[in-house]
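PROTEIN DESIGN WORKSHEET
SECTION A - STRUCTURE
LENGTH: 577
TOKENS:
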């Protein structure tokens, strides 16, 4: 039990505790020992007290970045990442990250101070007054409010269980300001706390569903396995590896599923993505969803060949969300894959050599075509020359965590940089959003103790760039590489009117992002060629010092919206002559 408040009446000899200490004790009891947040009214003292009681409290410059840090902490640890914010505007800043966590199935708890109910409900104009619970509910998996100190233990327990059980997601916990100062008997307070037991119980698949899925897979002439970030989250790495290898089926890793098996594995079809999606006849999804990232399982991407889909997911309602799933397997991924592996027996036959050879040939051809582009030493750099250098560095440092966001920077890096271990690549996820970079860097370094390499587009970096001060303040082993081509997509667009304002996609020419890191005591480097970039990144990774490298790219490098320009609507109107 943490420090208690002594009774003002010594004769009573009663030990008291308060809301501050009960929240801290409840977090510690459940192994939640790190908080990401921004201090302010009414949670400033709570942060101080939590730190005094041994919880690591990392203070950010913006709640959204703190929330993204908490969300990816949840992904990396399978425990809810905790974000702490002030009321109203601070809560809203954190809410973006909470919705992101829910969409991506990352366990996270957003704890926000709030105004008192009687004032909010009568709309009397309190400081930062807002009905935060009502606003949060549609955007997260669950939302709770604690009004009484004796309910703090139950409130946090419900939040933890909701965040990690079934399909993980974001949970909001509303703590009105008066709650922190509520006083109660210390012994009664201790008894009110709840240690959550088996928060995410195994969900065993039905034997019939396992047999059905294996029968469909066995019947395939051109099978494919797709590994999503849900498979990486499951931390069932050995079972997944054994299942894929025993099946002999080519596998396609989604972006954050990369590294479950190395991208250089002979069954990896990452470099033959278009071919396997188009030509396969049976597709098994493991922790992946048929959303926009997989063209919803239909259309030109998937070709004309009839498809049968097998899907392993913990959420039954995910089945048939876009196309018919002929063999749904519902349960947690570890249990499902293990059950399938056990049911395969010793007589399992690998797919036809014609199919596996065709996939391998296409993959090798594409890799060979790409290789010369990655070898150039152009100055200013293009994307391929810069990413070719980083590809080699990641290969030499497979334990480092790669954070990646941007448009071209993200889309090209995903295909060029091979990953060798699970959960070493973290990026924009299901929404494809910008701004996750610095928050992810901080949480990855804190939660894993591993060095972090962030590869950022200059536009993406701008969303959370001020957090380089946070990286320096905590002296984290983070190397940030900003691909600087002077703008969004390209830095060469022009104002069609010829006016003084630059085009909407253009930034300051020749900006020196490296000077930002220097301003806070870190290391800044300006790199104008792949050779300079290689030396700078290796030095940063060797030193472990906070480093930002301004990688100068040709302003003309890049394409509109990276590889998803088709999602950018074009005007159907023609200019009149």
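SECTION B - SEQUENCE
RESIDUE ASSIGNMENT:
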């Amino acid at each position: 039990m943490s420090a208690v408040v002594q009774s003002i009446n010594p004769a009573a000899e009663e030990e008291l505790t308060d809301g501050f200490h009960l929240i801290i004790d409840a977090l510690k009891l459940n192994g939640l020992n790190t908080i990401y947040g921004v201090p302010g009214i009414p949670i400033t003292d709570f942060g101080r007290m939590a730190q005094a009681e041994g919880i690591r409290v990392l203070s950010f410059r913006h709640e959204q970045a703190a929330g993204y840090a908490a969300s990816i902490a949840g992904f990396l640890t399978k425990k809810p990442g905790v974000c702490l914010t002030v009321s109203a505007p601070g809560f809203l800043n954190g809410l973006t990250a909470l919705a992101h966590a829910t969409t991506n199935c990352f366990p996270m708890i957003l704890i926000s101070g709030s105004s008192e109910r009687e004032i909010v409900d009568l709309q009397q104009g309190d400081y930062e007054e807002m009905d935060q619970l009502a606003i949060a509910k549609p955007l997260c998996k669950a939302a709770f409010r604690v009004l009484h100190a004796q309910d703090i233990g139950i409130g946090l327990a419900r939040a933890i269980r909701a965040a990690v059980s079934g399909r993980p997601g974001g949970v909001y916990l509303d703590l009105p300001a008066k709650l922190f100062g509520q006083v109660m008997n210390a012994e009664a307070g201790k008894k009110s706390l709840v240690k959550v037991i088996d928060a995410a119980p195994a969900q065993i698949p039905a034997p019939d569903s396992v047999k059905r899925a294996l029968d469909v897979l066995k019947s395939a002439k051109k099978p494919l396995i797709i590994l999503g970030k849900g498979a990486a989250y499951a931390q069932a790495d050995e079972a997944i590896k054994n299942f894929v290898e025993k099946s002999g089926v080519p596998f396609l890793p989604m972006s954050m599923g990369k590294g479950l098996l190395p991208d250089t594995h002979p069954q990896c079809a990452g470099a033959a993505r278009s071919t396997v999606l188009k030509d396969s006849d049976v597709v098994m999804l493991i922790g992946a969803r048929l959303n926009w990232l997989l063209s919803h399982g239909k259309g030109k991407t998937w070709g004309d060949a009839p498809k049968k889909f097998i899907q392993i997911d913990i959420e039954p309602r995910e089945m048939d969300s876009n196309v018919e799933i002929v063999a749904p397997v519902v349960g947690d991924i570890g249990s499902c894959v293990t059950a399938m592996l056990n049911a395969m027996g010793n007589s399992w036959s690998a797919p036809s050599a014609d199919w596996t050879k065709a996939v391998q040939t296409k993959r090798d051809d594409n890799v060979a075509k790409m290789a010369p582009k990655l070898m150039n030493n152009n100055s200013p750099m293009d994307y391929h020359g810069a990413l070719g250098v980083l590809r080699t560095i990641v290969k030499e440092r497979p334990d480092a965590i790669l954070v990646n966001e941007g448009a071209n920077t993200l889309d090209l890096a995903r295909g060029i940089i091979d990953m060798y271990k699970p959960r070493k690549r973290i990026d924009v996820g299901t929404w494809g959003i910008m701004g996750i970079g610095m928050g992810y860097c901080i949480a990855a370094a804190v939660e894993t103790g591993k060095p972090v390499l962030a590869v950022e587009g200059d536009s993406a970096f701008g969303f959370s760039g001020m957090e380089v001060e946070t990286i320096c303040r905590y002296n984290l082993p983070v190397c940030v590489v900003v691909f600087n081509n002077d703008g969004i997509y390209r830095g060469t667009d022009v104002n069609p009117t010829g006016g003084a304002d630059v085009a909407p996609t253009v930034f300051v020419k020749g900006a020196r992002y490296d000077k930002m890191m220097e301003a806070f005591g870190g290391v800044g480097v300006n790199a104008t060629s792949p050779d300079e970039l290689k030396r700078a990144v290796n030095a940063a990774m060797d030193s472990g010092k906070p480093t930002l490298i301004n990688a100068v790219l040709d302003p003309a490098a890049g394409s509109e919206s990276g590889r998803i320009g088709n999602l950018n609507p074009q005007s159907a109107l023609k200019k009149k002559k």
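SECTION C - NOTES
The two ends are 79 Å apart (CA to CA).
The CA atoms of residues 18 and 183 lie 4 Å apart.
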